[in-house]
Design brief:
Elements lengths: L1 H17 L10 E3 L5 E3 L4 E7 L1 H4 L7 E6 L5 E5 L4 E5 L5 E5 L3 E2 L2 E2 L7 E4 L5 E5 L4 E5 L5 E5 L15 E6 L5 E5 L6 E4 L5 E5 L8 H10 L4 H6 L10 E4 L5 E5 L15 E5 L13 H10 L5 E6 L5 E5 L5 E4 L5 E5 L12 E7 L2 E6 L4 E7 L1 H14 L3 H14 L4 H13 L3 H10 L3 H18 L1 H25 L16 H10 L1 H10 L5 H21 L14 H25 L6 H11 L1 H14 L8 H26 L3 H49 L1
Antiparallel strand pairs: 1-2, 3-27, 4-5, 5-6, 6-7, 8-9, 10-11, 11-12, 12-13, 14-15, 15-16, 16-17, 18-19, 19-20, 21-22, 22-23, 23-24, 25-26, 26-27
């Protein structure tokens, strides 16, 4: 028996050790147009984990920056020993710059934090510890030094602490300095101080205006204790081939919480420092990403020649991979000690198609390479951005083979079909890609073509509908009896159910008949409430996709039911309570029925809005708002008539009662939350007392 157990254990361990290791202990994901995070196949996967020995050098000390030159060489700033490692395209050491001289004398770098290599292979280093920027070659000879500029902007209290730098095609040098809020410090190609570039604007908020006001009456000590409203300091930047600079601006930290008020900002600055960022992510997807990213801290970014932007964070080790329109392609990465994870990421750059991440704590460079899925996405996005939609179809189809739910692929194929004038097919793909704007464009063209080709049938149909309406009107006139309400009809011949519909067109006479002859119907009011709930469900489920693409899985009939029931109940309760104080004659049930009867136009217009939304384009959405405005005003007119007749109020008193009713609703909500809070505190106190009594009993 013992021998059998030993054999089973050996077999289990053998199976476990033979299982293939996962490529990475995380999953890549993106956000769909509804804002949900969805898992996707990996776009990048870790291919190499390089330490100093793998590169052919000694173990790295404290690497702080990474740069890939135009010639393809890789430069690593190893700040600990104060040296620069130069690698070739195979990630093997070409040279080590560990001895720096200035005018023939030793001039080592200290706590250096950034470097840049220009197109002449001149190396610029942000020598933070020595408060300078140096220019050197691969021989370590320093050919230029930039110290603290002599300017009014740099007084004695301001230290020159360069951290990151880039150089544009004209040779201008941009230096990100610590505690400098005016933007990057700008030097011309002769390394002369020019000013500042890309300062963030201070957003004027109510709190900022309030603080500014109170500061006028405070002492200097009190002013120092308050927040200073200054532009945020740039975290890092990178320059694209077209001369545009991508920068990261940190969000404001929330005290005592490990999160920020908003996601770190990403800007694309032209030579005039104007932000030209174009974000084509859907609104819901961007809002969800921005909400999740409030717990991240972006530290570096890289923009490659193919138009892809990669941003890395050091709080969760996450990498965001965007296209040039800031549409999120994938997010991946994690903190950890496994392959493909990081402990202290500090820099990111591209070497051809390889994505390089420098880890300061591990002293490694992780090389990520495109998967088949990633390569297909890059090819498709490349064709798409160049306007070659036809060529993009094949790689997009390969993407869908890897991930049938990848929305960008459907949008890409839909764009190609739209370019072919195949508008109906394009609509199907845009619908799958949940892109309402492009769907609306395709539907617009499809509608024009359909109306032109079917004009005769449409015109004949309209004539037939008009003729049918006239015929029905003629028949109803002949069958109409001489029944008059207040306007001439004899009310005894109209049932309470027909009277409910009659009030829509004749609110005065209808509500008068309901009140004095007691023909109101609680059943009809319940039916109207059911229609109100159904209208809410229809708005979520069947609104035209060119107007708003809602997630069908997010339709919550229970939520619609209770939200509308609570609002109605609060209105009726508040108005009934007011009537008890202001000599109103209507009962609680009367007010309930009046309110539901009055909502008929709003309900009918709501259903009409859903129907019309499927036949118009996005630019015509104002018609839908007009329909709902008509319904609301019509229902409000009916409600005024009903309240005035049932409470026996004058018009002015009726309007005043409705205003007080709304205030009463807010007061009831406040009291409910107050009672809930008191109940929570009472419950907490009782539980504390019970725990204390239980503890003393056990101790006694």
């Amino acid at each position: 028996m013992r021998r059998k157990s030993v054999c089973i254990c050996i077999l289990i361990f053998s199976v476990l050790f033979c299982l293939p290791a996962a490529a990475a202990p995380y999953r890549s994901y993106t956000y769909d147009s509804y804002g949900n995070a969805v898992t996707i196949p990996d776009v990048y996967e870790p291919a190499l984990i390089l330490n100093g020995q793998d590169m052919g050098v000694q173990t790295m000390g404290t690497p702080t920056d990474l740069f890939v030159s135009q010639s393809g060489d890789i430069y690593i700033l190893d700040s600990g020993p104060g040296r620069i490692l130069v690698l070739d395209g195979n990630y093997k050491a070409k040279s080590i710059i560990d001895h720096f001289t200035l005018n023939g004398e030793d001039s080592p770098i200290t706590d250096a934090s950034g470097l840049f290599v220009d197109n002449q292979n001149r190396i610029f280093v942000a020598d933070t510890g020595n408060r300078r920027v140096i220019r050197t070659g691969t021989d370590g000879v320093i050919t230029a030094v930039i110290d603290k500029p002599e300017s009014a902007y740099f007084n004695e209290s301001v230290e020159f602490l360069p951290e990151k730098l880039v150089i544009d095609r004209a040779g201008n040098l941009y230096v990100k300095c610590r505690n400098i809020y005016q933007g990057a410090v700008l030097f011309d190609k002769e390394l002369g101080f020019e000013g500042f570039f890309g300062s963030e604007k201070v957003v004027t908020t109510a709190k900022a205006l309030s603080d500014f006001f109170w500061k006028q009456f405070m002492t200097e000590e009190q002013k120092d204790a308050m927040a200073d409203y200054v532009p945020t300091e740039i975290t890092n930047f990178d320059i694209a081939d077209d001369g545009f600079i991508f920068s990261i601006s940190p969000g404001q930290n929330i005290p005592w919480q490990n999160m920020k008020t908003e996601m770190d900002g990403i800007r694309r600055l032209n030579p005039k420092a104007t932000d030209t960022t174009v974000n084509k992510m859907s609104k819901s997807a961007y809002q969800s990403m921005a909400q999740d990213a409030r717990r991240l801290n972006f530290i570096d970014l890289t923009y490659d020649e193919n138009g892809f932007l990669n941003i890395i964070d050091d709080q969760k080790g996450r990498i965001y991979h965007f296209d040039r329109n800031l549409q999120l392609i994938a997010a991946f990465g994690s903190l950890g000690d496994y392959d493909g994870t990081f402990l202290g990421p500090v820099a990111i750059d591209m070497c051809g198609e390889d994505l390089l991440v420098l880890d300061s704590k591990k002293a490694t460079v992780t090389v990520f390479r495109l998967t088949d899925m990633g390569r297909a996405v890059h090819q498709a996005v490349g064709f798409y951005n160049q306007g070659n939609y036809e060529e993009a179809i094949e790689p997009w189809q390969r993407v869908l083979e890897h991930n049938p739910n990848y929305e960008l692929a459907y949008i890409g194929i839909g764009s190609a079909l739209y370019n072919r004038q195949e508008h109906q097919s394009a609509m199907e793909y845009f619908l799958k890609g949940r892109d309402s704007e492009r769907y609306s464009d395709a539907y617009k063209e499809y509608r024009i073509i359909s109306m032109r080709s079917n004009f005769v049938y449409i015109f004949a149909g309209l004539i037939a509908v008009f003729a049918a309406m006239m015929l029905v009107r003629y028949i109803l006139r002949k069958r109409r009896r001489g029944i008059v309400l207040t306007s001439g009809l004899q009310s005894r011949d109209i049932s309470r159910y027909k009277l409910a519909f009659y009030t829509v067109l004749h609110p005065g006479g209808g509500f008068d008949e309901l009140h004095y002859r007691r023909k109101n119907s609680l059943r009809m009011s319940i039916l109207y409430f059911a229609a109100l709930v159904l209208m809410g469900a229809f708005e979520q489920q069947f609104i035209g996709p060119q107007i708003n693409m809602r997630d069908p899985n997010s339709v919550n009939l229970t939520g619609v039911f209770f939200s509308r029931l609570i609002i109605l109940f609060l209105f009726v309760l508040s108005n009934w309570a007011l009537s008890a104080l202001a000599d109103g004659k209507a009962t609680f049930i009367d007010i309930w029925i009046i309110t539901l009867y009055s909502l008929q136009p709003y309900i009918y217009c709501g259903f009409l809005r859903v129907l019309v939304s499927n036949f118009i384009i996005k630019e015509e959405a104002a018609y839908l708002q007009f329909i709902m405005i008509v319904g609301i005003l019509w229902s409000l007119t009916m409600l005024l008539s009903g309240i005035m007749i049932f409470h026996e109020y004058e018009l002015g008193k009726t309007i005043l009662s409705l205003i007080i009713t709304l205030i009463g609703m807010l007061l009831i909500i406040f009291l409910v939350f107050l009672l809930y809070s008191l109940f929570q505190q009472l419950t907490s106190t009782i539980m504390t007392l019970m725990n204390e009594i239980s503890f003393r009993v056990r101790m006694g």
